[in-house]
Amino acid sequence: MKKQGVFLQELASDATEARFDIIGVIGWEVAFQELRRLFATLGESVKRVVFDIYSPGGDVWDGNGIVQAIGELGKTRETVARVQVAASMATLIAVACQKRTIASNGRFLIHNAWTFTQGDAADHEKAAQHLRDCEAEAAKFYAARTGQTEEAIAALMDEERWLTPEEALAFGFVQEIDDPFSTEDVAAVRAEIEAAGKWPMALVEIPQAATVGKCSDCGHVQKETTPPCAKCGSQNVKEVDEADDYTTNNGTTSDAGGAGDEPPVATVQPGDIEAARLAGFEAGRAAVDETMQARALAGEERVLALTADVKRVQGQLDVSVAEARKLQGERDQARAIAEKTKAALDEATAKITRLLSGGLTFTPSVETWEQALATCGNDYEKARKQFPEVYRAQREHDKANRK
Length: 403
Fold this sequence. Notes:
Oligomer: single chain
Mean pLDDT: 80
Radius of gyration: 49 Å
Number of helices: 13
CATH topology of the domain at 5-111 and 160-181: 2-enoyl-CoA Hydratase, Chain A, domain 1
Largest sheet: 6 strands, mixed
Order of helices and strands: EEHEHEHEHHHEHHEEEHHHHH
Strand order of the largest sheet: 1-2-3-4-5-6
CATH class of the domain at 5-111 and 160-181: Alpha Beta
Distance between the termini: 98 Å
């Protein structure tokens, strides 16, 4: 179920016409940014853009943006508004289009802008001036698009009433009333479709209803619908439906009489019309099935292509993960070597420190108090000063043994 909003109807890649549904409140359900995004998707083949409008109006700012976007669109394409209901801001969107129609039971309403305000007197005065500016802009735009004067438009905005289709047409807001029940319009549309080659041939070949003349005195049927009767000369010739008079209830041809009569005109039985309708339906369904099948195949190809892309990306990811793990291992190995090198460097530094503390002599390493005494020629004081750490270690050892 289609909700309120702005919708682009399904569009073929080579379509020459695009149709937009504008349903709901401008600025809420119908957003300028969304409509502009949809405009950007239109292909170069699109030469005509139709807006089906059913809206009570809405926000001035979003509406003005949409009006400008339609104006830009109209520089390269034909723009058409088909109004069912248009009020307030939606009417400005409608008249922004180059061609405009309204449904035979549609309605059109223009009025002065309004808003809510709060604050002191200065705030309300500013809001009032803003509304006056919006009114003047709207009246000027309506007048330019309809051929009316700004004064006439301003008076109509003050009146604020729903215009009938005939009034909307008279004021120039639309150029045509769209009546789907008009037999003339239906015939014109059918002729247009036939000319474009889009009408089922089975329906094209159905002859239109025709009339003939029938004599009330002798029953003679003739092509002329006016007297006299070609058979008996009577003036009682009446216009009747062709099919009713050439074919009787039992399906046989009635007596047309006279050697000079025109040959009977071929008629169409109800069964023929039903057969033609079914043939057209079947042809349309076959075309739809063919289109849907083509789309399904295209979708399947797209899925396969995406699956291949996913596999390719997954392979690249696996390679990246393997390389990352390899780099992590190399980094761990480098860290272990660095730690080992640091330990060796610390040990070498300690030995150098001890070497320097020994007066730059290459004396053997002294680890015990006995070695310290021997190094100092058993000079107790000299050994204590030269090897204080060994001395303290010996003292601690002696204390521990005395306990």
